[in-house]
Amino acid sequence: MKKKLNPNYHKRLRGEASKSWSDLPFDLLNLVFERLSFADFQRAKSVCSSWRSSSRQCVPKNHIPWVLRFPQNNENSSCMLFNPEEKDKLYKTQDLGLEFAKSSCMKTYGSWLLMQNLQSNLFIVNLFTGERINLPPVESQFGMTKIQSPVFWIDEKTKDHVVSWARSKKCVVYSKTGDNSWNKIPKSSGCLDMVYKDHKLYFSSYSGKVKIFDFSGEIPQQIVIEEKHIVPPLVILKPIDYSVHWPSIDATNIVVTVTGDVLKVVKVWTYWSRSWSFRLYKVYSLGFKQHEQVYSLGDEAMLLDLGITVLANDNDGIRRNSIYFSDCKNTNKVFHFSFETRKMERLHKFDCSSVQLSSSRWFLPSNSLRHD
What we know:
Elements: H1 9-22, H2 26-33, H3 38-44, H4 49-55, E1 66-71, E2 80-82, E3 90-92, H5 98-101, E4 104-109, E5 112-116, E6 122-126, E7 132-134, H6 139-142, E8 147-154, E9 161-167, E10 171-176, E11 183-185, E12 191-197, E13 200-205, E14 210-214, E15 221-223, E16 226-227, E17 248-256, E18 262-270, E19 275-285, E20 288-294, E21 300-303, E22 308-311, E23 322-326, E24 334-338, E25 343-346, E26 357-363
Parallel strand pairs: 16-20, 21-23
Antiparallel strand pairs: 1-2, 1-26, 2-3, 4-5, 5-6, 6-7, 8-9, 9-10, 10-11, 12-13, 13-14, 14-15, 17-18, 18-19, 19-20, 21-22, 23-24, 24-25
């Protein structure tokens, strides 16, 4: 005789399964979380409240850089995201508001964007949550001024932040949490490029000087750098002429490595091959100024848009000894340059038939979403 099943049998099974998944021990969940990509990590932590709570104490594997693409149409207040691990998929962010649509992205840090609105004022916004932090007004303090080489940092939990930028070639200013105005950094004229990392502001000038300011205290303090070698001036930028048939300097930046070395990065355009190549020079290391050419990044990858290097693992999707960069003159192109092959590769061709895009940036998604 066939046994009659309890009509609530499947509901009970589902309930038991749900309970067992939510009761997995933290150590086991951590083993799973730390192996997930950024996108899968966000999906996994949404399974239940227990997993979400556990995710806040987990450090996932190294994230690979994503491409952030901004719409050209001012009516569109969402961005498109491209994950190189998922080559045929684009993500769309939530609606970030009308002011966002009419603003320009100046820099990224983790999942946060530094934006400039039509009045030249700055604000910080979280790409995924829409959380916004207003900064001291620029126009009322300086009038209409050109903002150059902006950098910023933000603590994902406390929202403490530092924002710094150059007033053309005049000086560098900064604002920290709680400031109502912008503060001038002495002896900071002629700024060519800046990077902010580990509470330090790295500054390079057109004259070739490299300065480091420590932001760990109330007031930035310049760190004394000893002379070890004479540092020749950084290459002064000139407008690139794409009609010539010899290599031309396209841009000169500084990049801070994982170990704290400062590299001068010279981006060179070669007309006949219609491609870029790079020359690297170490200009600061272990407290000393230097000037030696670097031919390899070893186990690191350079994110040129962010001014940093990260530890890389080919198996994790980010290639070692290489540079990731975007073409600011062509919104549809993002690239990878390998120091092993000395070749440039276009990573992905985006289908922009449905939306017009104005610019793109590489960015490194942070672990901030574990704390929301």
